[in-house]
């Protein structure tokens, strides 16, 4: 009894997988041939290294803080001074 049950389960599983595969193939056939996209190669841009002058330091731009950020800094200073 058990042997027959296992055999039936096995055949049922095989039939289900075959049915799924047939359905998938039918769907693909309906969709038509697959058109592959052509790959476009990007041109590589070489970065040129500029020799820095001797003794020169790189220039750093200073960013002005907004009013909100200035207010936050002032609040921190005031709270730190009040604790001491």
Characterise the protein shown here.
- This protein is mainly α.
- 56% of the residues lie in helices and 0% in strands.
- The chain contains 2 helices and no strands.
- The relative contact order is 0.04.
What class, by secondary structure content? mainly alpha
Low-confidence stretches: none
First and last CA, distance: 88 Å
% residues in beta strands: under 5%
Query: Helical residue percent?
Result: 55-70%
Tell me about the biggest sheet? none
Query: Care to count the β-strands?
Result: 0
- How does the overall form come out from the CA principal axes? elongated
Run of helices and strands: HH
Rg is: 36 Å
Mean pLDDT: 83
Number of helices: 2
Give the helix/strand layout.
Blueprint (H helix, E strand, L loop, with lengths): L1 H30 L35 H17 L1
How is this structure best summarized?
This protein is mostly helical and 84 residues long. It contains 2 helices and no strands. It is elongated, with a radius of gyration of 36 Å.
Structural descriptors:
single chain; 84 residues; mainly alpha; 2 helices; 56% helix
